[in-house]
Fold these 2 entries.
Entry 1:
Amino acid sequence: MNINSNYDNLAQSYLFSTIAKKVNEYTTNNPDKKVIRLGIGDVTLPLCKAVTDALHKAVDEMGVQSTFRGYGPEQGYDFLREAVRGYYKSHNVDLELDEIFISDGAKSDLGNILDLFAKDNTVLVPDPVYPVYVDTNTMAGREVKFIDANGENEFLPLPDKSIKADIIYICSPNNPTGAVYNKEQLKAWVDYALENKAVILFDSAYECFISDANLPRSIYEIEGAKDCAIEFCSLSKTAGFTGTRCGYTVVPNNLGKLNKMWVRRQTTKFNGVPYIVQRGAEAVFTEEGQKEIAVNIAYYKENAKLISDTLKECNIWHVGGKHSPYIWLRCPNDMKSWEFFDYLLENAQVVGTPGAGFGKNGEGYFRLTSFGSKENTMEAMERFKKLFK
Ligand code: PLP
């Protein structure tokens, strides 16, 4: 047999293992120091009560002959697809039920969707970037071009008409930068995609952090997007489902054969998300569920605001933190990303993520997240003030 040699072309990512190693070394040598981790990309608050009640109920149903369920529909149960449709409707987006696919999270479908595209497509990815977009294409042997996100464009690059792209990745609110596109900017991308007969793969995993009604939560709020975009969303950050696993993908019927191809792909390679999990996910969209998750999202957003306000006080340039759990800052005193990591660990015992780990344009930048506890975030910011104010 021959192995897929494209795997040899994957950049080895030592980002999180290097961070863990450095932090371990530091805590071993300085056992009396309290290290605060603001690099965390996972949620920390538990599932809300509406969700756990629904999960318990579904577990009980599975233990009774008359309500037991075996294989479910590969595209997801209608009760959850209807709930997702209602959620979109509340943001003025009308979807057909057969355009909504329940997934076990955005990451899987972002990778799986590439089954639908030929190898000879040019892929356009912003730099810095969530590494999954690049790695999944590299595994398939596809060429990836980068578009620069940087301080000049406030990490919101717009289309460069001189580049001909076929598959375009956009993530808004963005990981790692926290930057959010407005409607006009997203319209520029939609127009560009339509002109190029390209497809946009729109990652809206962080849409729930948007609190300005004028900012788009879904690309389908933009005219023409149903003719060129597939959207990936997730309950991971919205409702603490990082370990429970549920999301949804929208493949519009307007996209030629793609919707039917995706049905074919899913029915062949996927057997659906567990019934129990889908009942838990359904509860997220109830009135009670929405109220309860809003409390958790507000908690993270308060942390983000505290970080952003502190950076302002310290005159540290940054984006994000307003409609996003991520804050992307320029390292003070022209430090490089890893230099700043070491400096911060040594002098403030605060851990973040070096921007250089997300692409070449991330060099000189640093990512903090708001997923820690309020107490730790406050203490970390006091330490920032002591160092930089
Ligand atoms: N997309 C982005 C931009 C992310 O940051 C993440 C997770 O961190 C995901 C997708 C994956 O989400 P899920 O947990 O639904 O697979």
Entry 2:
Amino acid sequence: MINGLRGMKDTLGDEADVYGFVIETCVRIAKNHGFEFIQTPILEETALFKRSVGESSDIVGKEMYQFIDKGQNDVCMRPEGTAGVVRAFIQHKMDKAGGVRRFFYYGPMYRYERPQKGRLRQFHQFGVESFGEANVKEDASIIALLQQILDALGIKARLKLNSLGCPTCMPPYRQKLIAFLDAQEGLCEDCLRRKETNPIRVLDCKNAHCQRLLAPAPRITDHLCGTCKEEFQTLRSLLEVLGIGYEVDSSLVRGLDYYSKTAFEFVSDAIGAQSSIAGGGRYDRLVEFLEGKPTPGIGFAMGIERLLELVKTPQKQREGIYLGALCEEAVEKVYRLGLAKRVCERVVVEYAPKSLKAHLKQADKKEVAIFACMGEDELREGVVWVKDLINKTETKIPLEEF
Ligand code: HAM
């Protein structure tokens, strides 16, 4: 027997229903906020992720599904969605067109991580990316959009917020941090490596000993330039006005290199160690970095599999019609009626003739709202016998009308 690959799973049954409900909810709310659907390929040039997510990140450094294709191209299955959307934004000259463009997307992402609860090698994200709006109100709107999605799904999560500064304040802060790190003895291997490649990621180390050493480390929030400080303060006030609770976490650095200024994550304490259910931030330099016209950007992505564990689905409502034949002669009519009606609603058609009792039992199992059948009498009279399974009323409806 051939099984699915490690860290990759099938979605079916109730879980598939919840998956559909989550995507529908995300799409509806994103559209209400003026976002449009974009779909980019799963396979992209490896260079795209190296240049955007960053070579120092674990995602690019250790976790890529990368290979040389038959045309000798170095390609990679996307580990995240932002890079592809930014590439498309530039390739379709939306950077040159100017103005604000907002996109949402969803689909599978691939990271060769060690699988564990909440951590898969193929997982799904719903994400949004907004281009062309530098105003911090956009940051608050994007966080509000994410909060609305979580509320609609009945998910309670904590918002962690940080500012990663800009090209004015980040470099001097980085120097200060490096000087601090150089003076520490006993940092783990990962920290020593990150100190060289991307020192702020050292703050993210989960090792208890490192955390103790890092407790007095200089914090970016104390080293922001005037503009970043003011914008961060405005963002905090906006969130307060919007009634969105948050905690400032100056060690929230995110695992991707493209961020500047606002960075955020929603975490849940109810799903184990992999607690981040959504993350995002501003990437004002990324479009320029990928050779587009400088355009500010901000977005987030949520991990659908992690959400699935937390979603409260509304109670299932009876829905659609069940159609069955009581005798052989009515089978074809019922079959054709059923196919025709599927244009506008869910119809369950039973192919074989059965007794009324057997049909009703099956209709109940299929959770339909309306039961309809035809037997000899109905054929003769040109009607369909209909029972409303919610109100428990019974009627005969002329075929044409039905
Ligand atoms: P990220 O934090 O790497 O950000 O991923 C976003 C979310 O994807 C995480 O919060 C988590 O819920 C889910 N996730 C990540 N890795 C896994 C995994 N191995 N298994 C299951 N779920 C996972 C990004 O991907 C950025 N592109 C977000 C963004 C969009 N920033 C700006 N725009």
